Amino acid sequence: MTIYRFDQAIVRRPAESVVNGLRAVDRGPPDVDALMDEHSAYVLALEAAGVTVTVLPPAPAYPDAVFVEDPALVFAAGAVALRPGAATRFGEVEELLPELHRRFREVIELPGPGFVEGGDVLVTPASVMIGLSERTNREGAEALIECLTHLGLQGTIVHTPSDVLHFKSDCSLLDEETVFCTRRLASSGVFADLRTVLVPDGEEAAANALRINDRVLISRRFARSIELLDRLGYSLAPLGTEEISRLDAGLSCMSLRWWSGPN
Ligand code: CIR
Q1: Which domain CATH number covers 129?
Q2: What is the rounded CA–CA span in Å between residue 78 and residue 106?
Q3: Is residue 54 part of a domain?
Q4: CA–CA dist 244, 248 (Å, integer)
Q5: Centre of ligand 1 from the C-alpha of residue 3, in Å
Q6: Is 147 a catalytic residue?
Q7: Domain range holding 218?
Q8: Atom of ligand 1 nearest to the CA of 117
Q9: pLDDT, tens digit (0-9, with 9 covering 90-100), for 53-109
Q10: How far is the CA of 236 from the centre of ligand 1 (A)?
Q11: Rg of the chain, C-alpha, whole Å
Q12: pLDDT digits (tens, 9 = 90+) for 226-244
């Protein structure tokens, strides 16, 4: 079974409070209606890729709750409820837990007090890579490795480049052997076991693409990245990210994805 084969996803509709979402640089708040449209198009793209999508209601108390990838990890074997490194995002875990319990027989809560956000976790065939960052500390990463071991998975700790929000802000898996990543992340040597396709300089935010089944969801803002991946034979689904990018988000962050069928 390939690592990017998914038949289920959970997303959460954005709340109007999304305008108060966290961002490293304030380029002005996102336009809520346009952001809702980006979200709707994302859900349609997941469905078109063959995924059944569960859409959770908005959680207005948590402006970043639309980025449902960060408070949990999900695998065929079970789910891990994480502890976000951003204080304003702690409560998102409680919001998500009932749905995790509905969907997974095994739900492990990350033992405290460390923290991990899902955006720092890249699943590769060899291991589950956990990038240390401002949102994921060593204590959390070590606790997560124990949770992963319990699920029969192996975790390894790596480093997120400084000034980068999440490990996956700078990379995404394209297939079993290949990762699409920024030059600054590739040069750290972290992907020794994988073929790397470098994101064209100046298009770093394109790195957060999302391989789902036979296609790769990618931001339509990055023409050179689209041309490159198209030339390499990937089937692309370009999507609008103008509004979510104001909140430092890309295409992996708006869903939790897993395979629920037989191996
Ligand atoms: C945050 O700073 O937490 C949100 N504004 C963006 C989270 C993006 N998450 C992700 O890429 N996994």
Answers
A1: 3.75.10.10
A2: 5
A3: yes
A4: 7
A5: 23
A6: no
A7: 8-258
A8: 12
A9: 999 999 999 999 999 999 999 999 999 999 999 999 999 999 999 999 999 999 999
A10: 23
A11: 17
A12: 999 999 999 999 999 999 9
Q: How many domains does the chain fold into? A: 1
Looking at beta carbons, which pairs linking 185-192 to residues 24 or more positions away fall under 8 Å? 185/161, 188/158, 188/159, 188/161, 190/129, 190/158, 190/159
Q: What's the pLDDT tens digit per position in 142-175?
A: 999 999 999 999 999 999 999 999 999 999 999 9
Q: How far is the CA of 65 from the centre of ligand 1 (A)?
A: 9
Is residue 105 a part of any domain in this protein? yes
Residue 107's H or E segment, with its range, is: strand 107-109
Which one is catalytic: 39, 147, 166, 181? 166
Instruction: Kindly report the average pLDDT of the chain as a whole number.
Output: 97
3-state DSSP assignment of residue 195: strand
pTM over 0.85: yes
Would residue 3 count as lying in a domain?
no
Q: Which residues line ligand 1 (CB under 6 A)?
A: 21-23, 64, 67, 69-70, 86, 118-119, 165-166, 169, 247-250, 252-253
Task: Indicate if 253 belongs to the active site.
Answer: yes
Atom of ligand 1 nearest to the CA of 86: 3
CB 121 within 8 A of CB 129: yes
Is the confidence at residue 1, as pLDDT, over 60? no
3-state SS, residue 194: coil
Largest CA distance in the chain: 46
What is the DSSP secondary structure assignment for residue 234, as one 8-state letter? -
With respect to residue 2, please indicate whether it lies within any of the assigned structural domains: no
The pLDDT of residue 134 is: 97
Which tokens is 89 given?
A: 């995002």
